[in-house]
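Module 6 notes. Inverse folding takes a fixed backbone as the condition and produces residue identities as the prediction. Think of it as a translation problem where the source language is geometry and the target language is the twenty amino acids. Below is one complete input and output pair. Work through it position by position during the lab.
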């Protein structure tokens, strides 16, 4: 639901803040006062194309912020969550236009694209009278509206799931059939590749171990020489062995401890050093015993590594990936060897799945046709009271061929209308008159209000070309619609304005340099004055005021 709009330096609006509530909100004002500015600003926030002409004269940029409550709009909440823009059952859309030509958009403070504004906007607001946001002109919305009205949710889910299952099986069949076309040559290649990898017998982690062993074998001579040199320096050099020097140092310090006990810890460190040198020498000797020059093993390791890398290059994978590749190739080989059996099983599964889909889709079609007839009749009746006598609406179902079937069913759905008697019905988006289109849309919304998903409806020019009792009927239908959904209506008819739950007056003032539009919420007394103005024009009499008061009181009863 729309809760607030802030407009700054837009058209002839300097600064404007409006709070919105549930029910029917009407906007009235003199011709030329700027009643459409609010709707233009809302449209811009919802993704309309912008240019610098909308910026107030003498200003560098215009800014529009619109707030919505999403607590009862699960579709919009899910969209926000999907795009990581959710914020505690609230959505704030901001649009900024600069004279430099830059346009910026934000959803809950996150930079967004104009396409994202449009996607989200179509879930939050339906603008009637401005083609850019009339969701009823979209065929998928018309189909959704019919299905919602018929409460088809469970049946639609069943049809969609059966269609997905059928298509997945069909894709598996096509993939296996294609593979079967080249079966013999592919099988021959697979058998060779599996045999080759089997012969290699590569184990997980083996390549890394071989690389380490190769490094050791390639440097065996250096390892032997250096290790022996270290042993000699530590223990076997008769003249300057480290162990002998440490032993002499330990003896000398031990003698001195009898003179100064403070040297005892140092003597202990020297004793520990002697032990560590002895252990080092012992470990090095064991290492040398295990180390040997083995040219034959070196050649074997080099050849093994070469074989592994040759196969990895052939299969265009890392050496370690060869371990995982073998079972994959074996599975493909097995699938191809059993392809005939699998193809037969898949064909049977496809037939079963297709029959299941066809049965569910037929059930959906039957219910749709029954609902379409009833919905067409109710909307047509509603149109008669909206100065569209003789007009009609027909919800048409067109059977699709099998190649066009989808998760939405086996037929195409379109709303066809005729606004005048004797005029053939044609698609809703081909209706020429904006006023007629708005009233037709109103009739559709009134009848389907309980099933509709978009929480806020905005009507502009809905009462163009009508008056008298028809105007009152339009007002009553808008008010009834406001009992279920939020409705905002720009009107010039007092009969409609009197039926609003909330009333705003749009006014324009100017001096010699600037012109400013303001929108003011009206209390009961101000509403009487405004409706009296709409009834009587320039000269407002006591009788006119009395009539205006009576209209408002009648609407509240």
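Target side of the pair, the amino acids:
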């Amino acid at each position: 639901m729309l809760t607030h709009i802030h407009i700054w330096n837009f058209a002839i609006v300097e600064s404007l803040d409006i709070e919105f509530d549930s029910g029917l909100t009407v906007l009235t004002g003199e011709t030329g006062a700027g009643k459409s500015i609010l709707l233009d600003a809302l449209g811009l926030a919802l993704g309309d194309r912008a240019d610098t002409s909308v910026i107030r004269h003498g200003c560098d940029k215009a800014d529009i912020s619109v707030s919505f409550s999403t607590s009862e709009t699960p579709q919009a909440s899910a969209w926000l969550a999907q795009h990581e823009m959710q914020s505690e059952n609230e959505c704030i859309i901001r649009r900024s236009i600069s004279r430099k030509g830059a346009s910026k958009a934000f959803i809950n403070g996150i930079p967004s694209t104009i396409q994202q504004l449009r996607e989200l906007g179509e879930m939050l607001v339906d603008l009637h009278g401005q083609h850019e946001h009339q969701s009823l002109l979209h065929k998928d919305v018309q189909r959704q509206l019919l299905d919602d009205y018929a409460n088809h949710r469970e049946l639609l889910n069943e049809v969609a799931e059966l269609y997905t299952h059928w298509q997945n099986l069909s894709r598996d069949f096509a993939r296996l059939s294609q593979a079967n076309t080249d079966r013999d040559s592919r099988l021959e290649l697979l058998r060779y590749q599996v045999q080759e990898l089997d012969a290699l017998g590569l184990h997980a982690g083996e390549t890394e171990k071989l690389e380490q062993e190769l490094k050791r074998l390639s440097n065996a001579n250096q390892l032997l020489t250096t290790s022996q040199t270290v042993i000699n320096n530590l223990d076997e050099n008769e003249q300057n062995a480290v162990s002998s020097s440490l032993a002499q140092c330990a003896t000398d310090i031990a003698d001195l401890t009898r003179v100064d006990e403070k040297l005892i810890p140092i003597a202990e460190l020297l004793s520990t050093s002697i032990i560590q040198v002895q252990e080092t020498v012992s470990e090095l000797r064991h290492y040398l015993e295990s180390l040997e020059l083995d040219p034959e093993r070196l050649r074997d390791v080099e050849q093994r590594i070469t074989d592994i890398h040759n196969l990895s290059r052939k299969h265009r994978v890392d050496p370690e990936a060869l371990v995982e590749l073998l079972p994959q190739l074996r599975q493909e080989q097995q699938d191809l060897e059993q392809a005939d059996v699998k193809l037969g099983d898949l064909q049977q599964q496809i037939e079963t799945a297709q029959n299941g889909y066809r049965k569910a889709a037929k059930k959906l079609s039957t219910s749709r046709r029954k609902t379409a007839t009833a919905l067409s009749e109710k909307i047509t009746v509603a149109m008669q009271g909206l100065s569209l006598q003789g007009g009609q609406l027909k919800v048409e179902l067109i059977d699709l061929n099998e190649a066009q079937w989808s998760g939405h069913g086996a037929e195409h759905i379109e709303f066809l209308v005729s606004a005048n008697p004797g005029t053939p019905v044609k698609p809703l988006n081909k209706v020429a008159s904006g006023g007629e289109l708005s009233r037709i849309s109103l009739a559709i919304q009134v009848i389907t209000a309980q099933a509709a998903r978009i929480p806020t409806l905005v009507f502009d020019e809905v009462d163009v070309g009508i008056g008298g009792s028809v105007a009152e009927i339009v007002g009553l239908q808008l008010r009834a619609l406001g009992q279920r959904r939020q409705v905002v209506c720009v009107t010039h008819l007092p009969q409609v304005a009197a039926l609003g739950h909330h009333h705003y007056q749009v006014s324009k003032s100017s001096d010699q340099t600037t012109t400013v539009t303001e929108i003011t919420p009206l209390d009961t007394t101000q509403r009487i004055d405004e409706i009296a103005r709409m009834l009587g024009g320039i000269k407002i009499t006591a009788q006119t005021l009395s009539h205006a008061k009576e209209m408002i009181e009648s609407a509240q009863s």
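Reference fact for the lab report: The longest strand covers residues 2-10.
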